Amino acid sequence: APSIVWFRDDLRVADHPALHAAIERGAPMVCVYVLDEESRGIRPLGGAARWWLHGSLTALADALDQHSGRLVLRRGPADRVIRALVDETRAGAVFWNRRYGGPERDLDARLKQALRDDGLVVESYAANLLFEPWTIRTAQGTPFSVFTPFWRACRSAPEPRHPLPAPNGADAITPADAATDDLDDWDLLPTHPDWAGGLRDAWTPGADAAHARLRDFLDDDLVDYADGRDVPSEAATSRLSPHLRWGELSPYEVWHAVRERRSDGAGASRFLTELGWREFAWHVLFHAPDLATRNWRAEFDAFPWPRLHPTALRAWEEGRTGVPLVDAGMRELWSTGTMHNRVRMVTASFLTKNLLVDWRRGEQWFWDTLVDADAASNPFNWQWVAGSGADAAPYFRVFNPELQATKFDPDGVYVKRWVPEAGTDEYPEPIVDLKETREAALAAYEHVKAAR
Ligand code: FAD
Fold first, then answer.
1. Pocket residues for ligand 1 (CB within 6 Å)?
2. To bridge 226 with a disulfide, which of 181, 270, 309, 372 should be the other Cys (CB 3.0-4.6 Å)?
3. How far is the CA of 338 from the centre of ligand 1 (A)?
4. 54 lies in which domain range?
């Protein structure tokens, strides 16, 4: 009886334990991706993510094809779709790599039980995180809420396993018969208007591009990563985040590539720590599944968000706040589907503290516009900036966008790239006074202190 390999956030063929297991099993195989926009609690993808997914599925179909496999596309509530596929193909086994979001875990657990009750072999694997969230615990057996001890615990856990090899040979996979949707019918790409030109220029989805990116980063930027990572005008970071988000590259592949290259340097250690923040975000989400909607620190429920000022939110989204570094970041985001980490912090601080807009509004905009938006890192980092999150920045740390620009973009290279009119008459005055709004934010924070 055939095996089903259910691809989710792991759009690759190398270091893919579920695919590996199906190949070992030896039976014909259905490799399926399910576009699930219906199951309860599963967050629909944002626009930039849909664009990326189209490219990534195209690349995955090619990669499977090189091993004689075939990618089957289906759409609908995932549990129903997989069960229908089992019936259609008379499959005897289903394999997948684990997901860590709350609704996804519930769905997977229910489906696994139902299929096992029907006599199928169902196995799930660790593939997208280096450390399974439930295995890293404090001495008291509780989840971590502070990064440094979390990462220390990870580093003293057994070293992450080595990556599995890609399927071996041009006929490694025997496809089983199953009908597929046409990817173009999913309408993942924007048409009217086509806003994706800048994304196409900036990115190539897929595992081949991901591996090329990793090699370039290791060759050119890893050594100076510790210093270069904060300068937004330079391409000094890895730019691997969307590839990791979609699992075109596994964290195991990245981890061992860095370790083999130079595990001793400051650049390597800093870079591995950043991968650690990704692990931490998922650890926090695993233990607080409603991270995108609820303050991780409950006392922030007392924060008196003023009534939403839609024009201020709009100006922020469109990069028209009159604050050059903020506008540069927001325009980079809209144009390319990404934003430098330093500037993400500055723009998020500006929205939540200077404009006093609820972090959830900003999180939602990033969710829709980032190619790397994921269910853990995005809300985790928003809450980190807003002060309501795990191991968050202290509330009084209101990023001053002018000082940040002086420090990290001293020659204005980054700002000029995205806001060429800055400094001329055409450029508007700031929509708010930075000093006054900072004070208003600190005053609002008194309510949180009182609720503590
Ligand atoms: P590098 O500096 O090369 O870092 C290597 C990898 O480490 C990244 O690819 C990423 O996987 C991981 N990483 C680095 N920093 C973080 C971090 N703070 N949190 C989690 N993982 C991290 N990152 C996302 O992947 N998805 C998001 O949706 C996301 N939303 C964010 C929202 C805000 C408000 C902020 C301040 C940060 C957000 N980040 C998010 C974190 C960070 O900005 C990006 O991971 C980083 O800019 C990606 O660029 P890079 O791949 O060149 O990173």
1. 229, 237-241, 244-245, 274-275, 277-278, 281, 341, 344-345, 348, 366, 370, 372-374, 377-378, 381-382, 385
2. 270
3. 10
4. 3-128
